[in-house]
Design goal:
single chain; alpha/beta; FAD/NAD(P)-binding domain; 15 strands; globular
Length: about 325
């Protein structure tokens, strides 16, 4: 059966929360996920620890028990696997929605595997972690340049440039240095992001101060080659020898996909989707937006913990129409 009352695009924590709310309301729904369950969390660094406590990551009124106050990536993956299994959520994996066409009374979704789905309502819970903010410099597409970080092992005894100043960049710089990499940070501003995890910030600042990790502030990468990185600094342009570039420059929603549907983005720096703040309905009737994608480019505004109620808000809005 390819006809549903509701289709939820994205099986991250927000999409799962929407599915649980729909299931409790006896709505005929399907979650469509282009990769795996909570794919963004799966692609987090292997040893990552969340900033949030476990209870603030809970959804569906199911307790999240972790060994420490701050849960790890592996604990989060296990938790959301248990959620999907316990609720027997209806999720279609490895299916990417390429196009959405609005009809008279429903929407038609064309997918990458030639599957065609139909729904009266749609929830976009697509997140942003799949779309890196590119540097747009020569050499960025070389194999040595990584926009995602997994594990420190490949960088042992290698010269690594880490670009960025927020949590990911600081985590990566510290972990690769601790495992034996020669680390250089390139930071656009005059200091590191001051809301970096409180147990990470003083550590990385001290490593920079003592010279264990080299850092260029008020600087930017100009070019990347197989053997060096060219950097613009306040003291002039320099070239440093380099084996790997870890560009931890952040991520953004898939604005092209949103605009292809007809979603209007606010004409400001944030590019937030235009929505009804009370119902989370977009400018297109019966298409709703859930999760961090609501924040547009302001990806530090919304997290799992303050979007967990989006599912219930949207389902209540759908039920009011019914």
């Amino acid at each position: 059966m390819n006809n549903y009352e509701l289709i939820i695009i994205g099986a991250g924590p927000s999409g799962i929360a929407c599915a649980i709310a729909a299931q409790k309301a006896n709505i005929n729904y399907l979650v469509v996920e282009k990769a795996c369950l909570v794919n963004s969390i799966y692609n987090f660094p292997v040893n990552m620890t969340f900033f949030s406590t476990s209870e603030r990551l809970e959804i569906g009124e199911i307790p999240f028990i972790s060994h420490n106050e701050k849960p790890t990536r592996s604990e989060a993956l296990e938790y959301y696997r248990r959620i999907a299994s316990s609720f027997k959520l209806n999720i279609l994996y490895q299916t990417q929605v390429n196009k959405i066409v609005k009809g008279n009374n429903n929407f038609t979704l064309n997918c990458n595997n030639e599957k065609v789905l139909n729904a009266k309502f749609i929830i976009l819970a697509t997140g942003y972690f799949d779309n890196p903010k590119f540097l747009n410099v020569k050499g960025e597409m070389l194999p040595k340049v990584k926009h995602y970080y997994d594990d420190a092992h490949p960088y042992i005894n290698r010269k690594v440039v880490v670009i960025g100043a927020a949590n990911s960049a600081c985590d990566v710089a510290l972990e690769t240095w601790q495992k034996g990499a020669e680390v250089t940070m390139v930071v656009r501003d005059d200091k590191l992001y001051q809301k970096v995890k409180y147990w990470i910030l003083p550590n990385i600042e001290n490593r920079i101060k003592e010279g264990s990790i080299n850092a260029y502030f008020n600087s930017e990468v100009l070019e990347i080659t197989q053997s060096f990185v060219s950097i613009k600094t306040p003291d002039g342009n320099i070239e440093i020898e380099n084996d790997y570039v870890l560009a931890m420059t952040g991520y953004k929603p898939n604005f092209d996909f949103l605009e292809s549907i007809g979603i209007i983005l606010q004409n400001d720096n944030a590019k937030k989707p235009v929505i009804n703040e009370e119902t989370l309905e977009s400018n297109i009737e019966n298409i709703y937006i859930a999760g961090v994608v609501v924040s547009g480019l302001n990806t530090s505004e919304l997290f799992i913990e303050n979007t967990r109620d989006h599912g219930q808000i949207i389902i209540n809005a759908i039920l009011s129409k019914a």
